[in-house]
Amino acid sequence: MTKVEAIVREELYEEIKDALSGIDIHGITVSQVMGCGEQRGYTNVVRGSKVAVNMLPKIKFEIVVSSDEWADRVVRTISRTAYTGSPGDGKIFVYDLKDAVRIRTGERGRQAIV
Ligand SMILES: Nc1ncnc2c1ncn2[C@@H]1O[C@H](COP(=O)(O)OP(=O)(O)OP(=O)(O)O)[C@@H](O)[C@H]1O
Ligand SMILES: [Mg+2]
After folding, report:
1. Ligand 1 pocket residue status of 41, Cβ below 6 Å
2. Least confident of 34-48, 75-89, 100-114
3. Cα(103)–Cα(73) distance, rounded to whole angstroms?
4. Which end of the chain is more exposed for a tag (fewer CB within 10 A), N or C?
5. What CATH number is attached to the domain comprising 31?
């Protein structure tokens, strides 16, 4: 089992959600988060003076899938949909997942997510 975590531009939330649905991914967690990358945010000019805006609002997707093949599909779909080519397009992190539990049935591992 693999967990894919993607931090993306908030304005692309709908497109990414629809693209994941289009490849039959239905179990998704989404959060509104704040973050910064290599640029450490940006500077904004407020009433003539520069202020650092370090944290920008982003959307975080968390998706757990049963195999590496599915994880690759998810990574490719998000990469394609989240891409603009400008700084701040986001990051995708991939983790090995130890276990999962479907609380209603007690199923564990892959059974809990397929
Ligand atoms: N090393 C990291 N650890 C945790 N979160 C990160 C990391 N890098 C980026 N993020 C998260 O991803 C968001 C988007 O990052 P961003 O796309 O700006 O990355 P970047 O490395 O600066 O690449 P780019 O040069 O394309 O902007 C950040 O706001 C932050 O939430
Ligand atoms: Mg950046």
Report:
1. no
2. 34-48
3. 27
4. C
5. 3.30.70.120
